[in-house]
Design brief:
By secondary structure, the chain is mainly alpha-helical. It has seven helices and two strands. Helix 2 runs antiparallel to helix 3 and helix 4 packs antiparallel against helix 6.
Length: 218
């Protein structure tokens, strides 16, 4: 799996984010604090000093890039890695996009912009859609995919589980995009996102065990 090009893009974006962070911080008075966390209503409830608040997304972007680039080198199942490359790339690109928007949200008060968390939540939904679309194409891997003892031991189990997992993740992604813009009360919006994520995480694991158990009983 070739990752050099994507890593270079990632590091260049991280550098641009760092420059944007320094520039934004330089426009503010010393001691200014910016939001770093928002509640379900989209109201900022945690703050930090401007410079570290603006720079942490850039640092995280660089670290994520280095981690993603290292995964293919650490994967022992090299012969099957290329089939799982779309999942890794989807997660990598999606996380980069979310970190860019997170930095923009943090900088918004300093720049006089009025943006909320709706697009961030929708972006998370798009990330689930991207990963869900790529999951069925993957093959057994120790670092990418739904890794259970039963999927790793049986390629057929892996394929069936990831087909189901892909559909569930795409359903979660669509639900998150809709919930991001739906006129829901904050607590209902929160549950509209958390409940599908829990289901999409638990159901494939149980399903992979059930497949293994069913075949073992024959």
């Amino acid at each position: 799996m070739k990752v050099r090009g994507l890593l270079i893009v990632n590091l260049l974006l991280a550098a641009a984010m760092a420059a944007f962070g320094w520039w934004s911080a330089s426009r503010l008075d010393p001691g200014t604090q910016l939001p770093v966390h928002w509640n379900a209503s989209g109201v900022a409830d945690e703050f930090a000093q401007a410079t570290p608040a603006l720079l942490w997304p850039a640092v995280m972007s660089a670290l994520v890039g280095l981690l993603m680039a290292a995964i293919p080198r650490m994967e022992p199942l090299q012969d099957r890695l290329e089939a799982s490359a779309p999942v890794l790339r989807a997660a990598w690109i999606g996380v980069m996009g979310l970190l860019i928007y997170a930095q923009v949200m943090i900088a918004a008060p300093a720049l006089g912009w009025n943006i909320g968390i709706d697009l961030l939540l929708a972006g998370m939904g798009v990330l689930f859609l991207m990963i869900g679309n790529a999951l069925p194409k993957s093959r057994p891997s120790f670092f990418v995919g739904i890794r259970t003892p039963w999927t790793l031991a049986d390629t057929d189990n892996w394929i069936a589980t990831h087909r189901l997992g892909g559909k569930l993740m795409m359903t979660v992604g669509a639900a998150m995009v809709l919930a991001a813009f739906a006129p829901l009360a904050p607590e209902w919006r929160l549950w509209a996102m958390i409940a599908p994520i829990i289901a999409a995480s638990v159901v494939p694991v149980v399903y992979s065990w059930w497949l293994w158990r069913s075949r073992a009983a024959r």
